From TrEMBL:
UniProt family annotation: Belongs to the ABC transporter superfamily.
Gene3D superfamilies registered for this protein in UniProt: P-loop containing nucleotide triphosphate hydrolases
CDD domains, per database record: ABC_NikE_OppD_transporters
Domain ABC transporter, first and last residues per copy: 8-255, 274-531
One example GO MF annotation: ATP binding
Alphabetized UniProt keyword annotations: ATP-binding, Nucleotide-binding, Transport
Annotated source species: Thiomicrorhabdus heinhorstiae
Protein name (database record): ABC transporter ATP-binding protein
Domain of life (superkingdom): Bacteria
Annotated SUPFAM superfamilies: P-loop containing nucleoside triphosphate hydrolases
High-level lineage: Bacteria, Pseudomonadati, Pseudomonadota, Gammaproteobacteria, Thiotrichales
Length: 543
């Protein structure tokens, strides 16, 4: 196909539910070899647009009959469902944000890709297997012939996403739709997947519709950028022009929220609050029919850290490095094998939390609280916001136990986190992701803690919502002198929130110090690797 003829043309695309327009008159063209980034927050209509191209919209959603969707020489609006089944996978393919939910857990990954080849290309089993091994090699899956027989749970997140890319490329489509394909991945794996997509584009002349809310990723991968807001296309430009001279006020705000604001954060008085000394957490590895213990997995392997009053320590590392296990050990949700977790009690002095019985630990539960990564699963769907926030006050006997006074305190907490008192009678499903995270913060504040463990609290949020939540956490720290253990794999937010950084790899702290020391002058190769993997837009700002 000529580079001058579009692979994909959308003309006045509108998607409705009832009388409401969810996507409003979207028009753009994509060409062979082009990576076209479709950017916007959750609910902006990005994914709906891509599902309309695949003709996979949910029941109740309709495409306006005046809309035009052409894939090269094919009018997709004129195709029957049976005809679309031959087009999907063969001419246009899609990879999704969460590879685990896209792969069948009980079928070998090689067989899942081979099925696509048998269905669309009519290959026999032996031919299909050879082609799958070839595809696995192309997308960088090690020991491809052996991995063919593995199940999804045996692969890492990055390898599962590579399987999905291999499946999407199996029939050599003209168009690949990538819907937030790196959001769930660590920064080093994200860099590998982005490089792979660029390499495949160059080798195959593939057109890629890349859907994301991450401007750092857009800067590294896109040729053309389109911004959606509330179902409308508000800006469309070549990448260089887009970043140098954004026109729309919403685009300018998105860019501002995407680039971390580096701030010098210095504590005036430094008094230790929590000390970890040679902390070890091991999990048994069991095998065989009798599940006998054969080894220990050293999730946390001799970690020593200190957090002062009013200080934020960012604990950085990839999935599986042991970051969250440290948070769970401090909260006494996992047993420690060795080491001490020392807490400064205002009356008793230093107390080793690891040696306390559950009854003796109870008073410290209100002093150490947690905010989780996924704000939806962390909130009980059957409880109102009032009940969720009050629960800690009641069970830990914090403040007045009079229900009227507790309700007044919930009203005050909701206002502090940027919500309204009238929200208290609603249920979690009635709120956006950012609002749910604010409810989680209000719940943590309700018991007047000294330390809050923030376990990836912004990784599930859009950039603008992320910026708001980080600002809120900073304001609360200034107001109440809170300490934070901020667990993250996102280096871009460390200069915004932290006083100190500790970098974790395979259960050990490999480097620690001030933000300026660790981010500005990294000493350990692993820290340098993490920084090298960060999007260029982020590196320009934080280094």
């Amino acid at each position: 196909m000529s580079k001058h003829h579009p692979v994909l043309s959308l003309s006045q695309l509108s998607i409705r539910i009832g009388e409401d327009d969810l996507v409003k008159k979207i028009t753009f063209d994509m060409y062979p070899g082009e990576i076209f980034a479709l950017v916007g927050e959750s609910g902006s209509g990005k994914s709906l647009t891509s599902l309309a191209v695949m003709r996979l919209l949910a029941e109740g959603l309709t495409i306006d009959p005046d809309s035009g969707i052409r894939l090269a020489d094919i009018d997709l609006m004129a195709q029957s469902e049976r005809q679309m089944q031959t087009i999907r996978g063969k001419r246009v393919a899609m990879i999704f944000q969460e590879p685990m939910t896209s792969l069948n857990p009980v079928i070998k990954v090689g067989e899942q890709v081979a099925e696509v080849l048998r269905l669309h290309l009519g290959l026999k089993s032996k031919q299909a297997k050879a082609k799958v091994v070839e595809l696995f090699n192309e997308v960088g899956i090690p020991d491809a012939a052996e991995r063919y027989n593995w199940y999804p749970h045996q692969l890492s997140g990055g390898q599962k996403q590579r399987v999905m890319i291999a499946m999407a490329l199996a029939c050599e489509p003209q168009l690949l739709i990538a819907d937030e394909p790196t959001t769930a991945l660590d920064v080093t794996i994200q860099a590998q997947v982005l490089n792979l997509l660029k390499q495949l584009r160059d080798e195959r002349g593939l057109a890629i519709l890349f859907i994301t809310h991450d401007m750092g990723v857009v800067y590294d991968i896109a040729d053309t950028v389109a911004v959606m807001r509330k179902g409308e296309l508000v800006e469309l430009a070549h990448k260089e022009l887009f970043f140098e001279r954004p026109r729309h006020s919403y685009t300018k705000q998105l860019l501002k929220d995407s680039i971390p604001q580096v701030r010098q954060r210095v504590l005036q008085q430094k008094q230790a609050l929590l000390e970890l000394d040679d902390l070890q957490v091991h999990f048994p590895v069991r095998k065989g029919i009798f599940q006998r213990k054969v080894a220990d997995l050293k999730a946390v392997d001799g970690v020593t850290l200190e957090i002062a009053k009013g200080e934020t320590l960012a604990l950085v590392g990839e999935s599986g490095s042991g970051k969250s296990t440290i948070g769970q050990a401090i909260l006494r949700l996992v047993n420690t094998k060795n080491g001490q977790i020392r807490w400064l009690d205002q009356k008793k002095g230093w107390v080793d939390l690891g040696s306390l019985k559950e009854r003796d630990m109870r008073p410290y539960r209100k002093q150490i609280q947690v905010i989780f990564q996924d704000p939806f699963s962390a909130l009980n769907p059957r409880m109102t916001v009032l009940e969720i926030i009050r629960e800690g006050m009641v069970t830990l006997q914090v403040g007045s136990q009079d229900p009227v006074e507790q309700e007044a305190r919930v009203d005050k907490l909701l206002l502090q986190v940027g919500l309204f008192p009238e929200h208290k009678e609603r249920y979690p499903h009635e709120f956006s992701g950012g609002q749910r995270q604010r409810i989680g913060i209000a719940r943590a504040l309700a018991v007047e803690p000294d330390l809050i463990i923030c376990d990836e609290p912004t990784s599930a949020l859009d950039v603008s919502v992320r910026a708001q939540v980080l600002k809120l956490l900073d304001e609360l720290q200034q107001k109440y002198g809170l300490s934070y253990l901020f667990i993250t794999h996102d280096l871009s937010i460390v200069p915004t929130i932290a006083h100190k950084v500790a970098v974790m790899q395979q259960g050990k702290i490999v480097e620690s110090g001030t933000v300026e020391e660790v981010i500005g002058r990294p000493q350990h190769p692993y820290t340098r690797q993490l920084l090298d993997s960060a999007p260029s837009l982020v590196k320009q700002r934080i280094l």
